[in-house]
Amino acid sequence: MKENRKSNKAINYQELLRPFNISIEDYTETVAVVRQLACALLQLTDKEVQEQAEKDENFGTQLYARIFARTSYIELEHELQATDFSSNLAMTGEKYPSLAADVITLLASRCKLRLTKSQYEKILRYYYLRLAVNQHLNLSRIKKAQDIVTSDIFDSFMLAGRIKEALNSSAAGKLLDIGTGAGIPGIILAILLPELTCDLLDTVRKKLAFLDFVCRDLQLPCNLLWQRVEDYAHSQARHSYNFVVARAVSSLPTLLEYSLPLVKIGSFCFCLKTTNEPELSAAKLRNLLGALSLPPAVYSLPPAAQANFPRQIMAYRQVASVASTYPRLHNLPRTRMLEIAQEPS
């Protein structure tokens, strides 16, 4: 990342972040959305939140207001009254019923993750850093506050839950996020799974420069890699990762040719995809890339998500070394995909 820092000296992130203007309407909607997410992740019901607030008058201030109303990265268009925050703290979700119900039900029941206060605050901090910087730099096509929560963060949590299951049968070690972009899912995984060493790989310098700033701000020990994945797979990193993950990088045959040579024998590759991906030939997958396909985890995003269609976490276990010819260079994995898709019967 030394080259990235040098080439991005002109980017002053502190200047980009101040002021971060947000309307009262967007603010209150975002607080409601993220608060419901927080309740799900902390496995707290609205009643428990209110009980906590009654026991400790600083509870709400510590857990929510410090992130939203008092952060130096936000400047409201109008002065926020105390009643605005307190009404959101006591909100039962009636204003956003379907989103609240889906987020709480799906995340709390499926991910089986319980956050510490520090983890929760880091996720919200990342959320606002990204919102602010994306106003000036094109980090991701997902720009709306609500979509970051209901799509990007949601996907990351579902993947974290799947990795957590795999950790029960595999020693903690190294994780690689291919094509990390604005840090999804890699940054969220680094926060949720601190037992893993997370490497984030991308070819776009400005995105890695932003992630360098985020990692220093959140004190995340991630390694940032500016390299093409096909070149990286032919380095000493070959077959060295316990987990390789990717989200929306390329077609599945291409993505597996990139990813599987980096997976340690006996370890896992996870690809976040939609449910319309073609099935792969188990024999061809095993013979060409040395991997076995595992049952996918299928889920749906909350109704409020911009892209509301079924998702699946495609899972593969590496059981043999990949031939040194893979991945092919000169962009061949994209232009001439491996014929490992299942032939129609």
From TrEMBL:
Its EC number is 2.1.1.-. It is an enzyme of class 2 (transferase). It is found in: Cytoplasm. One of its GO terms (biological process) is methylation. Keywords: Cytoplasm, Methyltransferase, rRNA processing, S-adenosyl-L-methionine, Transferase. Gene3D superfamilies: Vaccinia Virus protein VP39. S-adenosyl-L-methionine binds at G179, V229, E230, R247. Its main location: cytoplasm. Pfam families: GidB. The keyword Transport does not apply. Belongs to the methyltransferase superfamily. RNA methyltransferase RsmG family. Specifically methylates the N7 position of a guanine in 16S rRNA. NCBIfam families: rsmG_gidB (TIGR00138). HAMAP family: 16SrRNA_methyltr_G (MF_00074). This is Ribosomal RNA small subunit methyltransferase G. The gene is rsmG.
